[in-house]
Amino acid sequence: MSRKKIAILISGRGSNMGALISAAMDPSFPAEISLVLSNRPDAKGLQRAQDFGIPTAVVDHKDFGGDREAFEKSVDEILKANKIDIVVLAGFMRILSPYLVNAWAGRMINIHPALLPSFKGLATHERALEEGVKLHGATVHFVSAEMDDGPIIIQGAVPVLDHDTPDSLAARVLGVEHKIYPKALELVASGKAKVKGGTKVTTGDTAEATAPLIWP
Ligand code: GRF
């Protein structure tokens, strides 16, 4: 089995990146983490990736004076030069233009800290508490032109407790993120997750695909 080559794009601490790197250390995992790329030179995750011996790159969006496409072209060149198969967004805080989204259609995935289609955008945990939802969670999806949209690969749900603060809820959701992201990447890299009709993803409903959906 040839392992798919993965680039993880980050902007910050990179805890999801760490979970993906750990999962990919298993030689039977269908993907290897070949590159970690950040748009911020000071992203904590860069050092973390280097500690694991993973090559890193920085493309600072500030060097492109607001020209989103020029920034994305530069990112794309690095991805191609590294022969990347699948791009994984893990806390990458740039809105992507159609240029990069189209170039990687069906080969780019993202994690969002909410049960999509609820709570797209930022401050998801604050808004979940304001709305009084009893279940919250995280979603891994293929990236499409709309922000926090695109076919859903896997979701993980957590309970919302009476005493929760945005921070305590975020921590519980992050725990489930670290479980579902490696699982989603495994499904995509092995070809088990398939987009059906342009909007839905089928995974074959195997026990291994559905087991981590509810946490704890
Ligand atoms: C995560 O909550 C992820 O869902 C969101 O940004 C955060 C990144 O955290 N997109 P980390 O950098 O992976 O720790």
Brief overview:
With 216 residues, the chain is an alpha/beta fold.
List the helices and strands and how they pair.
Layout: E1 4-10, H1 15-24, E2 31-38, H2 44-51, E3 56-58, H3 68-81, E4 86-89, H4 98-103, E5 108-112, H5 124-131, E6 135-142, E7 152-159, H6 166-189, E8 194-196, E9 200-202, H7 207-210
Parallel strand pairs: 1-2, 1-4, 2-3, 4-5
Antiparallel strand pairs: 5-6, 6-7, 8-9
The structure holds 5-O-phosphono-beta-D-ribofuranosylamine.
5-O-phosphono-beta-D-ribofuranosylamine binds next to helix 1, strand 5 and helix 6.
Key features?
216 residues, alpha/beta, Rossmann fold, seven-stranded mixed sheet, two-stranded antiparallel ribbon, binds 5-O-phosphono-beta-D-ribofuranosylamine
Describe the structure.
This protein has one domain (4-197): Rossmann fold (3-Layer(aba) Sandwich). The chain has helices at 15-24, 44-51, 68-81, 98-103, 124-131, 166-189, 207-210, and strands at residues 4-10, 31-38, 56-58, 86-89, 108-112, 135-142, 152-159, 194-196, 200-202. It contains 7 helices and 9 strands, in the order βαβαβαβαβαββαββα. Helix 1 packs parallel to helix 6 (166-189). The strands form 2 sheets. A 7-stranded mixed beta sheet has the order 3-2-1-4-5-6-7, sandwiched between helices. The chain binds 5-O-phosphono-beta-D-ribofuranosylamine. 5-O-phosphono-beta-D-ribofuranosylamine (GRF) is lined by residues 10, 12-17, 90-91, 111-113, 138, 174, 177.
